[in-house]
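Project outcomes to date are best conveyed with an example. Our students and postdoctoral researchers have been running inverse folding experiments weekly, and each run begins with a structure described purely in tokens. The record below, which covers 260 residues, was selected by the lab manager from last quarter's runs and is presented without edits.
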């Protein structure tokens, strides 16, 4: 239990690091604190803590730390993400797909424009391949085979799982309807943050920040469709919503505080 509490402290620290890594200008610190406040009052995150998903809880701080490092243009982000993914694969999927889609989009744009692919993008792609090998070594052949066999058994769909094992296949977490009720307070602010994402970053949206948007989209797909561990995807989805909600809520509080 003590280790689980320590892990929660790491979660708070890594979320603060991610939000501070976004180009928010003078509101960076305030927004990061608001993000920690939302994380602290999140019923969904409390349920995640209560259920004691040890491996997933241990992996998420590494993944958020990797996201922050990536936003800060550090190559260390990829191996850190590989460590997080080796602890628990599932929460890494939105970030891994987000990064892969980001790289493919950037390379495709350069090819279409007939411009040279930047050295930085080549380094990022190479680091991803090396980290994939690192991830495989950390997981081990037996660990990967266990996940792969379970995936093949149901083809990744809940519709192919027997009724007796449906709750376990969903991830033994809150259903989406309960998740919506729990997040009703900050969901409107998250929607504002998503819609106006390109406006609340300093100047224009940075290319690397797009990974967060793509990861959010992947999380929506994982939690909305009948895929394996559907409900467990809501844990990462909730954290991403908190990131998007933090800045609009910060502005709302400052607006209310400035009015007589």
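After processing, the design step wrote out the following sequence:
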């Amino acid at each position: 239990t003590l280790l689980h509490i320590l892990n929660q402290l790491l979660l708070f620290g890594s979320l603060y690091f991610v939000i501070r890594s976004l180009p928010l200008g003078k509101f960076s610190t305030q927004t990061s604190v608001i993000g920690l406040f939302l994380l602290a009052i999140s019923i969904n995150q409390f349920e995640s803590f209560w259920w004691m998903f040890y491996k997933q809880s241990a992996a998420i701080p590494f993944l958020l730390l990797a996201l922050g490092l990536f936003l800060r243009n550090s190559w260390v982000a990829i191996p850190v993400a590989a460590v997080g993914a080796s602890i628990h694969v599932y929460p890494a999927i939105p970030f891994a797909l987000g990064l892969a889609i980001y790289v493919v989009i950037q390379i495709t744009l350069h090819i279409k424009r007939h411009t040279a692919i930047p050295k930085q993008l080549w380094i990022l792609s190479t680091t991803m391949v090396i980290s994939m090998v690192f991830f495989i070594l950390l997981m081990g052949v037996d660990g990967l085979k266990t996940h792969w066999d379970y995936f093949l058994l149901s083809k990744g769909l809940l519709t192919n799982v027997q009724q007796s094992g449906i709750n376990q296949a969903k991830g033994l977490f809150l259903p989406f309807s309960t998740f919506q009720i729990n997040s009703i307070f900050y969901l409107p602010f998250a929607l504002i943050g998503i819609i106006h994402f390109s406006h609340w970053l300093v100047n224009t949206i940075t290319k690397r920040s797009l990974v967060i948007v793509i990861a959010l989209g992947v999380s929506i797909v994982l939690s909305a469709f009948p895929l394996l561990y559907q409900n467990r995807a809501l844990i990462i989805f909730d954290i991403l919503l908190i990131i998007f909600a933090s800045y609009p809520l910060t502005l709302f509080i400052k607006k209310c505080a400035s009015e007589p």
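The CA atoms of residues 103 and 121 lie 7 Å apart. The chain has a mean pLDDT of 85. The training component of this project remains on track.
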